[in-house]
Known about the structure:
By secondary structure, the chain is of the alpha+beta class. The chain has a single domain (8-110), classed as Roll (SH3 type barrels). It contains two helices and six strands; from the N terminus they run E-E-H-E-E-E-E-H. The protein has helices at 34-40, 96-110, and strands at 8-13, 25-30, 42-49, 60-63, 72-83, 87-93. A six-stranded antiparallel beta sheet has the order 4-5-3-2-1-6. The termini are far apart. 25% of the residues are buried.
Amino acid sequence: MAGILRxxxxxxxxxxxxxxxxxxQRPVLVLSQDVFNERSGTVIAVALxxxxxxxxxxxxxxxxxxxxxxxxxVKIGQVRTLSTERLGESLGQASPEELAQVIxxxxxxxx
Length: 111
């Protein structure tokens, strides 16, 4: 799949999963750089959920810049490397500020 951009929100098939991993058909936010996405056949992404989250930043961040069917939160700790074959249509692009906050949250989690 060509043209997958950093900051893009796309549908993804996350099954099969184990344990507490996010699964099913759900939106993901692409974190990896465009050149990586283009050349590797994979993307690094974080799962989104429509379930209200008790944990705040840095574990979750409400995504407001993309028009979603429901309110959505980025689950910053749910990082996955996905084959581009798992990705579907684009739902939009996160704002540069939201993308920076997700990267900041990930840096806080992993140190």
